[in-house]
Design brief:
By secondary structure, the chain is mainly alpha-helical. The chain has one domain: Up-down Bundle (Amino acid/polyamine transporter I), CATH 1.20.1740. It has 20 helices and no strands. Helix 11 packs across helix 18 and helix 12 crosses helix 15. The protein starts with a helix and ends with a helix.
């Protein structure tokens, strides 16, 4: 447990050190009015207490990813712990904080509008459609797992179908009602359950520490078929929300509209991501410890799902009452991402259509088609939905990181803090799309009977990354030329 303790300390220390550094690079201004001070509408622009804004942001982004994703990701071995820690500090939290701050500085604008301002109208229109579809996909995906867990905990009459209907009905209300009326009231309860789960499992981890191998031991890929699931890029997409997630940048504008002062931005945006990283770290370690090691985890998941593992860990380590509270926390995680995903879909559509959302009729006009498409998507196989959600999520992170890099470069700030993660995630995502079965691998296999070799997928990933780096260098040169020529133009 020594290495786990070190990883936990580094992760928390990252908030106080690198998080403070990033906020200084951006230039928080406590004297600058936030969007809610200028555009309060009682629906989406509602000033909330900072603790509640943090809690909503944390629950928005802490879906299944930091729990199920961490469990699936740690099967790749100890490298998963390193990615959770350093990915959170240097990529995910930076991504979440800066995307949130750009929304704060742009009157609470949604992600496609923010990205489009930096990367152009073509990218803006692409992001509008892509982000909207991803939000609806998240809403559909995050119905099934909580419904399964609730069906396991309740009488047989309250089956899976009942809970799917109940959860989706809640999603509809959370999308339409003012943010302080339902989400603002329920999230403290959900937050307590989720944080209780994390703290309870963490305490139990130390009580069962003898079963936890050190991170620096057995440092290799523990997947049953390493060639079919190489650590790069598969692990970096499997863990996703536990380190970096494009989905988070779609959620930040909701809280950008409720933040009362910029000085609270670092604990809300950077801090929420670090908290999610802590949850992911805990569940990765719990999965290994409970099953007795990497081989035991492989065997367990070969016969059961992460949901069953979560249920067994919670009840075994925390007892009946504690286990129920812990499982409720796990149920709250996807529900509190699914509801705000559909709410975010409404805001994205309203922003690019220019429809004000103060009146319920306007909200219904935007939301009803979203609910309809989400219901249709729910008819598709869950496994397919989850696979496509995973890499679409990281594609969104890539676009966001490049937009943030362009913004910082235009402002003559230290753009390297987003450029390095942008380059790395570009290589990860492009390689994954070419190699993974749910990417081009399935297409070429269906058309030609062969999948794309890993070496070719990796070459494509590195090639696209290099091309984007060259384009960014050209942008920097043009931006520098404009800056140098400005005094001459002004003088003329």
């Amino acid at each position: 447990m020594l290495s786990f303790s070190i990883a936990l300390i580094i992760l928390i220390a990252g908030y106080f050190t690198y998080g403070r550094f990033v906020s200084k690079v951006f230039g928080q201004d406590p004297a600058r009015p936030t969007p809610v001070k200028q555009h309060a509408d009682g629906v989406d622009f509602v000033e909330l207490p900072t603790w509640k804004v943090f809690l909503i942001q944390f629950l928005n982004i802490a879906g299944l990813g930091p729990i199920f994703g961490a469990i699936m990701g740690v099967m790749f071995g100890p490298a998963a712990f390193l990615w959770i820690v350093f990915g959170t500090i240097f990529a995910g939290a930076v991504h979440d904080y800066l995307s949130g701050m750009l929304s704060v500085r742009d009157n609470g604008a949604s992600l496609p509008e923010i990205v489009g301002k930096q990367l152009g109208n073509g990218i803006k229109n692409t992001m509008r459609g892509f982000s909207l579809l991803l939000m609806i996909l998240v809403g559909a995906v995050f119905v099934y797992n909580p419904a399964d867990l609730l069906a396991m905990m309740t009488p047989e009459s309250l089956d899976r179908l009942f809970w799917i209907i109940a959860i989706f009905a809640y999603y509809m209300l959370a999308t339409l009602l003012p943010i302080d009326k339902l989400i603002g009231k329920l999230y403290p309860v959900f937050g307590f359950a989720l944080l209780f789960m994390a703290v309870g499992i963490l305490a139990a981890l130390y009580a069962h520490s003898s079963s936890m191998p050190e991170i620096w031991s057995e440092f290799y890929n523990h997947k049953a078929n390493p060639e079919a699931s190489p650590i790069f890029p598969m692990m970096f997409v499997s863990i996703a929300c536990g380190a970096i997630s494009g989905f988070h940048a779609t959620q930040s504008p909701m809280m950008a509209r409720c933040l009362k002062n910029e000085k609270h931005a670092r604990p809300v945006f950077y801090g929420a991501m670090v908290t999610e990283g802590v949850v992911a770290l805990i569940w990765a370690a719990a999965a290994i410890t409970f099953t007795g090691g990497y081989d035991g985890l492989q065997s367990f998941l070969g016969n059961g799902s992460p949901a069953i593992l979560v249920n067994d860990v919670s009840k075994s380590w925390l007892g009946t009452v504690g286990g129920i509270l812990a499982v409720l926390g796990v149920i709250a995680a996807p529900i509190t991402s699914g509801d705000t995903a559909l709410r975010s879909a409404r805001l994205i559509a309203a922003d690019f259509m220019g429809v004000k959302q103060r009146k319920i009729t306007k909200r219904l006009m935007i939301s009803l088609p979203i609910f309809g498409v989400c219901f249709i998507i729910m008819m598709l196989p869950y496994e397919a939905l989850w696979r496509y959600f995973a890499w679409c999520n990281q594609v969104l992170a890539v676009f966001t990181l490049w937009a943030l890099s362009v913004y910082l470069a235009r402002k003559h700030k230290l753009y390297v803090i987003t450029l390095v993660p942008a380059l790395f995630m570009t290589a990860v995502t492009v390689t994954y799309i070419f190699f993974a079965p749910e990417g081009f691998g399935a297409l070429t296999d269906r058309l030609f009977g062969v999948s794309i070799a890993y070496e070719w997928a990796l070459a494509a990933g590195l090639g696209v990354t290099l091309l984007l780096l060259v384009l960014f260098a050209r942008f920097l040169r043009l931006n520098s030329d404009k800056r140098l020529s400005l005094p001459t133009k002004v003088a003329e």
